[in-house]
Amino acid sequence: MFSLFARAAPHVPRSTVLTRNVQFSVRFQSTVTTKPKRAPRVLPSFSMEGKVCLVTGAARGLGNEFCRAFVQSGCTDLAILDLKEDEAKDAATELVASACVNSDMTPEDFNVIGVGCDVSSELSVQRAFEQVMDNFGRLDSVVASAGIVENYSAFDYPFDRIKRLYDINVHGAFFTAREAARNMIPQGGGSIVLVASISGTIINIPQPQTPYNASKAAVRHMAASLAVEWAKKGVRVNALSPGYMLTKLTKTILAHDQDLKKTWESLTPVGKMGEPEDLAGAIVFLSSDASKYMTGSEIRIDGGYCLI
Ligand SMILES: NC(=O)c1ccc[n+]([C@@H]2O[C@H](COP(=O)([O-])OP(=O)(O)OC[C@H]3O[C@@H](n4cnc5c(N)ncnc54)[C@H](O)[C@@H]3O)[C@@H](O)[C@H]2O)c1
């Protein structure tokens, strides 16, 4: 107690402190008024400072939002992977510019790169990771967010499209996780998050999307399986399962059916679709040291959709 006081108002004699409490509190408060104490902003283990992050499917949508959440949490070294290289590079430039608005950071403080990568091709994923390792020398947090959805009834779904969906959603997540772990294990570990979906647990209605639902069930179980395989090597693997979020993916579906949004919202206890930033806290938690004892788990963020 005394040492705290002595720092706040060193000019007050010690005897005054011990015998005259009233004077103590008055003088102490006036010191606080002129120089407020700064409370800690967040639990330090949530910080992404010093971590090298990589997100697939990050030129837009949820992947892009995950990148923003990392930068807002202190990450300055980041790789944005997406199908088209120019879109990935544009997203990198835009992210750095927006991070410097109302901030004392300048573009030189960031190393954010855009890399073209088709996650459905193992070779493309390997080349992208090579580029990232050449650039940063290490990799701490990887998010596999690239994914597609299509709505066909089972009888109408063309097989080549079903294969394409599994190649991106399932094999793409696997190639991403495997390349991440290959690079993380020699450096002592890291965190991998596979973006699954509530569709891996429940069946969405009324739109038919059986292959998508099955692909996301595979991703959830893939996260748990890889978590066990790599647990002793320091690599954690968790799944993040969003409900209905407003991104290009869902807007494309809603463009063909305006009533669908009302149906989805009526089936969601909170009564509305989620915004991409509603996932920011969860992605930082899973990717940071705040979740260091957590692996093979799933976080579901769906406004309560799965409860009813
Ligand atoms: N939006 C939702 O409501 C919702 C809900 C649950 C789960 N998800 C999942 O979240 C993830 C992201 O969805 P979103 O809503 O941001 O979609 P989105 O369509 O807005 O963005 C997806 C991104 O992935 C990229 N991509 C597509 N194919 C790729 C490939 N082969 N290689 C690399 N990148 C590729 C696209 O170019 C795009 O930038 C997906 O896995 C999706 O299944 C979304």
Automatic annotation (TrEMBL):
Pfam families on file: adh_short_C2
SUPFAM superfamilies the record matches: NAD(P)-binding Rossmann-fold domains
PROSITE patterns: ADH_SHORT
Record flagged with keyword Transmembrane: no
GO molecular-function terms, A-Z: mannitol 2-dehydrogenase (NADP+) activity; oxidoreductase activity, acting on NAD(P)H, oxygen as acceptor
Native source organism of the sequence: Rhizopogon vesiculosus
Keyword entries, A-Z: NADP, Oxidoreductase
InterPro entries: NAD(P)-bd_dom_sf (IPR036291), Sc_DH/Rdtase_CS (IPR020904), SDR_fam (IPR002347)
Official protein name in the record: NAD(P)-binding protein
GO biological process, one term: small molecule metabolic process
Family: Belongs to the short-chain dehydrogenases/reductases (SDR) family.
Lineage, broadest ranks: Eukaryota, Fungi, Dikarya, Basidiomycota, Agaricomycotina
